[in-house]
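SAMPLE LOG
Freezer: B-3
Tube label: C17
Construct: single chain, 394 aa
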Amino acid sequence: MIDHSLLEPEVQDFINAHVNTPVSVLALQKNPFPHLDYKRILQQIESKAKAAQKLPTWFTTPLCLYPSKISIEQTSSEITASYKAQTIHGASLIDLTGGFGVDAYYFAQHFQSVVHCEHDAQLSAMVAHNSSTMGVHNLTFVSGDGLDFLRKSNTRFDWLYLDPSRRHEEKGKVFFLSDCAPNVPELVDEYFEYTDQILIKTAPLLDITAALHELKYVSEVQVIAVQNEVKELLFYLRKNTANPLQITAVTLFKTDNASLFTHEFGLRVPVELAAPQSYLYEPNAALMKSGGYDVLAHQLGLKKLHVHTHLFTATALIDYPGRRFQIRRVFPYQKATMKSLIGKKGHVATRNFPESVAELRKKWKIADGGASYWFFVTLEKGEKVVLETTKIGD
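STRUCTURE (predicted):
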């Protein structure tokens, strides 16, 4: 099922030698292998180049094959797959939506046996080839529908893993699990006939509250960010769970460090409002998506600028999962006071403010860059002000 011609030494040498060459340039050159489909070779180069940062293990392993560039873009990164695999344990796991097999590869390092199910027979064969090349021998490959396999084999697993794909891609818009294939809310009861534990991965645009209304038995949600960009949401389902739902904001760093904050989902706590003090605290992306910023502020004794301005302040400098700034100056957002910023260079951000960053830059001729960070915000009593700050740390 795999194209063995792509594994010929001369072809592999060509792919590796040109992995940093734009495919648009190579496409204009003569095919150095007239007996082969040049488009397939170019696709390998393009996809392997995409894998360099995201999938370094695959990139550095000789004789790995790659699917389309889109498949590489949609697969889990190694950093998220490795973390995810460490959050669950057991003897057996079945990945019902296998794809390029990055998650299955890391699950195989923590489970005795893993089954990888994939509709696309060619992709399934490619992942099986890569698995053998990479020395992983506790993975079984099923070319076909994962649920059909469960029904026919009637085998129970310690965990079921799913990464549903959106049936209708509308970029920038929130979607629901029922919009995805497989339709997990519709099938979850049947899935639980074959396991007591299910892990679901989704894209970060999914509305967490809406997903919780669609699902049952959710015991935990994790929001996974890499370098302060939310990459995926994880929903842990445990049959007949009765514990309070926990949600964890996780930020992974390329240095193998991680920042985690766990709280009870939906917990409401009192947060005192206050005018800007000496320091400004901006929650990181995972904390924002998890909704736990007020809970953490309450625990740390931070004050909030406005109920809808999710920035916090204090007189003391403390550790915080997000960016920290020293406040240099606070002035009202008025024409007279804004004259001091005209033509200056700085980083601009808005929170609970009627004008966008682009509008403010254009209106006041503010160039990007420099050491100053200006936050255009609304305070407790509705005042529109500018916080002139400098960033603390990296």
